[in-house]
Amino acid sequence: MNGLRYRFAEQRGMLLALAIFVLMFALYVANHPAGFTPNVVQTAANKGVLLALVAVAQTFVVLTAGIDLSVGMIFILANCLASYLLVGTPIGVALGVGGVLLTGLACGALNGLLVIYGRLQPIVITIATGAVFFGIALWIRPYPGSAAGFSSDLADALTGKVFGIIPASLLFLVVLVLVVWVPFRRSVIGRAVYAVGSSEPAAYMSGVPVMRAKFTAYMLSGLFAAMGGLFMTFFTYSGEASLANGNTYTLSSIAAVVLGGVSLFGGRGSAIGAIFGALAFRAIGDLLFVFDFDPLWQPLFQGVVLLLAVSLGAARLFQVRNRLDLFS
Amino acid sequence: MTTDKLNTNPAPRPNWTSRIDLPVATAFGCIILLLLIGSLYSPNFLSPEYLLQQLKVGAFLGVIATGMMLVILLGQIDLSVPWAVTLGAMMASAATAYGPMGEVLAIPFGVLCGVLMGLVNGIGVAYLRIPSMIVTLAVNAVAQGLMVAYTGGFAPVDSASPAMRYLAAGTILGIPNAVIVWAITGILAVFLLGRTTFGRAIYGIGNKEAAAYLSGVPTQRVVMIAFALCGGLAAFGGVLLVGYAGKAAQSMGDAYLLPAIAAVVLGGTSILGGRGNYLGTIAGVILITLLQSILSVMQIAEFGRQIIYGGVIIVMLLLYGREKSGR
């Protein structure tokens, strides 16, 4: 396989998600009563970035062949915490943002420690830690709301528009990808994450820092989930400890990751693919609004699209030459 | 030939200590511990009425966890349980509205809907080879969509049939019927897992599907049927719940996904598949039910319940859910 074809095969999932997103978004703006205006794009971007951040969080863990069912709860916890901490002067707000991000890192670190040193299966342990995170969120924010001196300057800046055209949230996401994802992908630890996801024993035998790779992945996952929660606060100016919301974000993040071509078996895919997966998933969800369908049909429509999208994964059956390959 | 040789040299009969499963023993130990802690708080915790009441509440989770266990033994997972439960509940109560014939067929109809849903899961996992976590997630979303569209997003007006109420809330000789239903389900599950080729095939597939296939097991069919059974049992749990509560409600199944997985795993069944027995799942179900009950009796606020609930599961998993060190 020559270089170009190999690179194409690596990016196929991402390109598919990009194509779905472009198609769905084109349909969306073409039928939107307001048309392709900065405001429509801004709203869509803000909603999309929210899910995209959580999907990136999920990506880090899925790349190591794990799964994080607590991302939605870290998201909720960060949302509730931010509704208290983003108060007062710009310095106070900056400290608050730092506090929220540190909390996310701590949550991710707890997951990582339990998976690595506890030798527990991530799917089970993150359910349990998710319950704990949600409990803490409910503790600090029993009723939806925000602190008295809530400062909305940063929130407005990051959910507004730059130069009156470009959505700031989208710009923020691009900067995050350039500052965090690209260096990560090229670093030793990033390669180690991919190696661990492909085959942990092989990675270990090759001297890859397995534990450090996994730990970093879970920490980054917590960090990005917290950033998602922060954005939720920017968006709504308040915090809410909603179990349903947390579960929805967890499940949507898995859907977005799969749509974006990240393999749940680990070692394949990228955060950029997951971002397009998240944007595509959101665009599909919004599509029904512009077509004047009964909103009651939205969950069914979204479900069917999701089912069709994941069924595309069955295409790999055509490549199977030996029946035994099915079971690998 | 070789079998004769093996038979002449029988393995020594294992003594009784080695036959006790460590996780199951630990789980039962934790149950006793919980009861003791509870009885320090209030002597009622050791009364037969309270214990029967707990078994009755646990029966719904027990039926649902039975199906989940079949799937987890395969090394798969079923995330569509929430809406399979709700689907069973809503369809059974909807059938009740169609006259006497509907009332008779309500329970089978509800369960059948769950089986069909599980069948879709099973086809996706077994034949299309899509990871179970994704298929069941998508099927869950579709079932939710169907039910939301059907009910208009409100709680349905139909209520449970007398038969459903009798199954879930009646008693025979002082024993709640729900407990009897769970016991029958459990006996059938033990028989299925231990005494039939289907059951042995489930363990085989959970250990290594390729090996099971090469040994002549129709692995794809077994996986599909196991998922169908899981869907049917979840829907049956929903039917019982609606009999208990009187009416179905949106998202009534949400509270059962994580406890079902937790109960199976706390009972010593490996989430990777192939290992575990039903006694452990019973222990897990009782453990989860008792834990929830004690936390609510102690009037701990919801946030505290969540934190303690998660914390206890983490600690118990650390006690005996750990994998062997791989190196």
Which helices and strands, and how do they pair?
The complex is a heterodimer of chains A (328) and B (327).
Chain A: H1 3-31, H2 38-63, H3 71-85, H4 90-116, H5 122-140, H6 153-159, E1 161-162, E2 166-167, H7 168-186, H8 188-198, H9 200-205, H10 210-236, H11 243-259, H12 271-290, H13 298-311
Antiparallel strand pairs in A: 1-2
Chain B: H1 2-7, H2 16-19, H3 22-41, H4 48-73, H5 81-96, H6 99-126, H7 132-151, H8 162-169, E1 171-172, E2 175-176, H9 177-195, H10 197-207, H11 209-214, H12 219-245, H13 257-266, H14 278-297, H15 302-320
Antiparallel strand pairs in B: 1-2
Helix pairs in contact in B: 3-14, 4-9, 4-12, 4-13, 4-14, 5-6, 5-7, 5-12, 6-7, 6-12, 8-12, 9-10, 10-12, 13-14, 14-15
> What percent of residues of chain B are in strands?
under 5%
Task: Indicate how many domains the architecture of chain A comprises.
Answer: 1
Taking all Cα atoms into account, the compactness measure Rg of chain B is 21 Å
Write the element-wise H/E pattern of chain B from the N-terminal end onward.
HHHHHHHHEEHHHHHHH
Radius of gyration of chain A: 20 Å
The computed structural class of chain B is mainly alpha
Oligomer: heterodimer
Unreliable stretches of chain A (pLDDT < 50, length at least 5) are: none
Looking at the structure, what is the overall shape of chain A?
A: globular
Structure annotation, total helices of chain B = 15
